[in-house]
Amino acid sequence: MKITRIKTIVTCPDRNFVTVKVETDEGLYGIGDATLNGRELAVVAYLDEHVAPCLIGMDAGRIEDIWQYLYRGCYWRRGAVTMTAIAAIDTALWDIKAKAANMPLYQLLGGKSRDGVMVYGHANGVDIEETVDEVAKYMDLGYLAIRAQTGIPGLPTTYGVSEDKMYYEPADASLPSTALWSTSKYMHHIPQLFDRLRNTFGFDVHLLHDVHHRLTPIEAGRVGKALEPYDLFWLEDAVPAENQAAFRTVRQHTTTPLAIGEVFNSIWDCKELIEEGLIDYIRATVVHAGGVSHLKKIFDFAAMHHVRSGSHGATDLSPVCMGAALHLDTAIYNFGIQEYMRHTEKTDDVFPHSYYFSKGYLHPGDVPGHGVDIDEDIAAKYPYQRAFLPVNRLADGSMFNW
Ligand code: EZ4
Ligand code: CO
Prior knowledge:
Elements: E1 3-11, E2 17-24, E3 29-33, H1 40-55, H2 63-72, H3 80-100, H4 105-108, E4 117-125, H5 128-140, E5 145-150, E6 178-180, H6 183-201, E7 206-210, H7 217-227, E8 234-236, H8 247-253, E9 258-260, H9 271-275, E10 281-282, H10 291-303, E11 308-309, H11 319-331, E12 338-339, H12 345-350, E13 356-358, E14 361-363, H13 376-380, E15 391-393, E16 399-400
Parallel strand pairs: 4-5, 4-12, 5-7, 6-15, 7-8, 8-9, 9-10, 10-11
Antiparallel strand pairs: 1-2, 2-3, 4-14, 13-14, 15-16
Helix pairs in contact: 1-3, 2-3, 3-10, 5-6, 6-7, 7-8
The protein binds (2S,3R,4R)-2,3,4,5-tetrahydroxy-N-oxo-pentanamide and cobalt (II) ion (CO).
(2S,3R,4R)-2,3,4,5-tetrahydroxy-N-oxo-pentanamide binds at residues 37, 170, 210, 212, 262, 312, 314, 316, 339, 389.
């Protein structure tokens, strides 16, 4: 089965998505997510100019060989743009192979290890009161695990807090908006949120929290220690991890479970974190970590070190990524949890899918392939709109991590 055409489709049904469609001479096609939030067109150019022309005529069944061709063959290994482009092609090729086998993708990955994929949703409020109400709403919807974020007194905006409670969208402007950050205000406030949540809901529901890369290692150790009585499922992205060894300090100071990985793009971003046992959950994703092929290798390596998966699943990862992720989540032994931020109705119209939510779990469905398609006519109705994530500054005007 030969690759005859590779199309990149850009659409903005409430937010931007880039999708790759790989077509073959046997009429089967596969699709992959290539969305890199805030840098979408860089990946489009990479795919159109530097990937698609090289693959025409290749055997669509040689997934691993094509992965290595794109990784080793470009000389400049890794990086978010390269690995997102590779991921999109890889996901589309797995979709084709599973369609050709007339099987849902999880069958090719080893079959089912579980009956459903436990997900967590995002509860957030401008203050603790509103966050408590939002957690209650997610519990009513059947969620077994809930991420809680709250506004911080003295900061006009806070990461993770949005007006639209079901569809959090941080890429909020055509030029980057500026947020204000204060570590001391945050560190003082956040234990109060979890104290309230545990007093209100008890310990049966899993609670998670995303620090979003804002602490130093010793600050993260302190927050982790302060949160220990509230038994978090995990503390996410406590410290930026370009320096993986920095997590040794966090680990020495707290037993709160640690998760990280949404900005990682290969095993080389997390090898020390995993093999030194510095984290509990690896949150890399299909779309940003080299596709199904490479993410499976990361998860298998993690399994040897008691590290579980916890893939990123925010709104900027398209339904195509979510579909592929759910097959991997279903098949691997060391699954932990899957983030699930609902897409808007418009997005779901563009990407018809077989996966569905029931009683706190997502299910990938049983149609051949990864079960997600793109309706190109509907997609064409929503042209690309430039959008950026915010930037963060401290009170003195200096730049900080967002
Ligand atoms: O800020 O996906 O856990 N989820 C997150 C997200 C990220 C966005 C960035 O594109 O941290 O909300
Ligand atoms: Co996050």
